Amino acid sequence: MTLQTLTDNYETIAGMADYALATNGTLTTPTITKPSIDGGTLTTDGKGNIILSGINGIKFGNLEWMNYNSTYNYIAVNGNFEVTGTVNVPTRTTGDNTGYAATTSFVQNTLNAERGSMTGDLSASGSSLTLTFGTTGLQLTLSYASAGTASLSAVSTSGSLTPVDIYEVAAYGTTSFKGYTLDSGTITTTATVIDSTFWLTSNAWGTYHVGIGGHLYVVDIFGSGAGKRAVMAWRKES
After folding, report:
1. Is this model's pTM higher than 0.90 or not?
2. pLDDT tens digit string along 78-108?
3. In three state form, how does the secondary structure of the chain look?
């Protein structure tokens, strides 16, 4: 190939004035399909951010891939949307059911508001477990009473709670049962004893239905190892 052939077959590209591209044929600039904006405007803020305003649809070719609706503040994606990095989503109020994206924190907080449990060692004098019913202000406390037994009481974290309904069904040994009932009662900051002797040697269990604030909670209590392994678990049923 002669020098003349090289000089006859080069092209320049705007922005590359200081460079020469030599080929033995014709240099073809590729065609790049740019997304089109359907209504509204697409601008940048000079900081690398793209700004959509109005009601817009971004198209690749003839396919509308993304649509932003500024009236209702949502972005709709037509097709698959894959995120390989982190998406920052504000944590919503616990119990929010309006259809927003959920963070792991929101999910965990919602689960914590629906159920919970306490475990611990009640084998020593002065030990206790306290179970709190969400934000109701009601607590159940299981406290060491004697070797292998505990007492169960209800208490308010602040002021008086009324009406409070409690029903206990507890079994101990192989054939014995006992119960407790509080109907339309009041629980104050002074503890109300529900069960003065709850066995903690794998020979007793107790289930408690608690009504407060228009909701029903169910509590299961079990203890073993003379109180070394005590469990209080609750769930919100309504």
Report:
1. no
2. 667 677 777 777 777 776 777 777 777 777 7
3. CCHHHHHHCEECCCCCCCCCEECCCCCCCCCCCCCEECCCEEEECCCCCEEEECCEEEEECCEEEEEEECCCCEEEECCCCCCCCCCCCCCCCCCCCCCCCCCHHHHHHHHHHHEEEEEECCCCCCCEEEEECCCCCEEEEEEEEECCEEEEEEEECCCCEEEEEEEEEEEECCCEEEEEEEEEEEECCCCEEEEEEEECCCCEEEEEEEEECCEEEEEEEEEEHHHCEEEEEEEECC
